[in-house]
Design goal:
Layout (H helix, E strand, L loop, with lengths): L1 H10 L21 E15 L2 E12 L1 H5 L1 H12 L5 E9 L5 E12 L6 H8 L4 E9 L4 H29 L6 E9 L7 E4 L3 E4 L13 E15 L2
Antiparallel strand pairs: 1-9, 2-4, 2-5, 3-4, 6-7, 6-9, 7-8
């Protein structure tokens, strides 16, 4: 049973096991185990050819100008880069002169080849009453790119664990080793992972935020795993 669950976990498969409920076994009667604890590591570079660009728009205008402001901003953003812009912040307040002060923050992922003169493009859009400014440019990989790399690294480690189990079973005849515990960390920090324990099953953990330095188009991921293999002593 343990062997089947271990193999299913490593291969990412879903296994249905039909078994009658078992009575609770006292701790003193638990079978003795041989255990092997060791660590594995795998690394991968995550490359991205886009950057997240934030554009800040500050405007002062009367009520008539407010009616067409969003359309004007969308048209101006398209002239900076023809991508899918998202307005993520829109604040407005009334000044003492009776004009509306508007602060807008828009963001988009833009191909790196279009970043070269993007600050100048924003400045060229500015005119009395409205100012466009590049607030931030970040070359951190996208969430999808990061998750794909993390999946590849986990699969590499799963394969190494599977190879280790096969080697142990050949070295120790009828050892019937299985995964008792495996826990992952990414660049030294917790990550979205399946923390597997033979006794408790699989528990999904929550990602810890990862920092990426602006300007980097490649990010190196190092995944570590603490592995415990076990075999029941007859």
């Amino acid at each position: 049973m343990r062997k089947l669950l271990s193999v299913c976990m490593l291969l990412g498969a879903t296994c249905a096991v039909n078994a009658a409920p078992q009575p609770v076994v006292p701790v003193a009667d638990y079978p003795k185990q041989n255990t092997i604890t060791y660590q594995l590591s795998a690394e991968q570079w995550v490359n991205t050819n886009t950057a997240k660009v934030d554009v800040m728009v500050n405007a002062s205008l009367d009520q008539t100008g407010m009616q067409d402001l969003q359309k004007k901003i969308e048209h101006s953003l398209a002239s900076i880069a023809k991508v899918d812009w998202r307005i993520v912040q829109f604040n407005r307040s009334e000044s003492q002169s009776g004009l509306e002060s508007v602060n807008v923050l828009a963001e988009a992922r833009i191909p790196a080849v279009q970043i070269t003169d993007i600050r100048q493009k924003a400045e060229d859009l500015s005119k009395p009453g409205i100012k466009y400014q590049i607030a931030d440019i970040s070359y951190a990989p996208t969430l999808a790119e990061m998750q794909k790399a993390e999946t590849n690294l986990r699969n590499q480690i799963y394969q190494q664990v599977s190879d280790e189990i096969n080697s142990l079973d050949k070295t120790y005849n009828n050892g019937d080793f299985y995964v008792s515990h495996i826990e992952f960390s990414l660049n030294g920090a917790p990550m979205p992972r399946a923390k597997y324990d033979a006794a408790g099953g699989v528990n999904m953990m929550v990602r810890a935020p990862m920092a990426a330095s602006p300007g980097n188009v490649s990010q190196k991921l190092v995944m570590n795993a603490e592995v415990v293999l076990a075999s029941t002593v007859e």
